[in-house]
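Team,

Forwarding the record for the chain on the shared tracking sheet. I've put the sequence and predicted structure together so nobody has to dig through attachments.
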Amino acid sequence: MPDDLIKRPRLLWQTHARKHNAELARVQVWDVFSELFLDTSRNEEEKDWMAELLADSPFTLEELEHILSHEVSPVCSPNLFEWPGGEWLMFDPDWLIERCLARQKKRPFKQPAHPRQKSIIDRFVDTLANLNSETLLRRVERFRNRFSSDESVSELKLIARVEHYSTACCGRTHAMRAGFGCPMVLRGHFHDCRLYFDENESIEPGETKQVEIRFLCPTLVYPKISQEIPYYLWEGKVIGHVEILSIDVTRKEL
């Protein structure tokens, strides 16, 4: 598969997510997992690309496995049985989101009390997809754990565009006020942050605003920050996403 196709922009499906009132982070995970069911092969670089995108998502490994097994696989796995060959380039975004969203609503994720044993069907689909999901999730875990703290950082400020999801699309029922604080999910880890903007303004559900963001522990956050990646605001669930416009870091004097 050509690099420019598998490495699609991470916000490519933002319009489609809004159209279906679907959570952008989950839509991107559906996108990545759907790659497993295309009629094509994947090299090591492409597998790392998939694992890195999944690592950037706000979902635990258990929920990622649930999304694959119960939301994406039932929708996309029939493509592997098409004759003489199924879809090989990419699934239609509207088609994929509509069906995966229906599966999500039918069987929402619940944190298991014990590790889930893979079913015979799951193992069979793994074989067809030519990529064991446990191997992929181990790559995800490796990507999430590769970052260490940068003790030279004393202060970190971000200028970012924040989209507060609509209430219908898992957003809050109330506006975000100046100084609003919540965890931001960075490479699968949660870091407390605060949003600063004009105190007379607010970010209503469904609105987007440019803000300044500061963190409680900048030494842990700075190594995980990139302007190329969307990050997510968390309040028991994903309530919005963040596009970083600029990064301002102050380092300690030696």
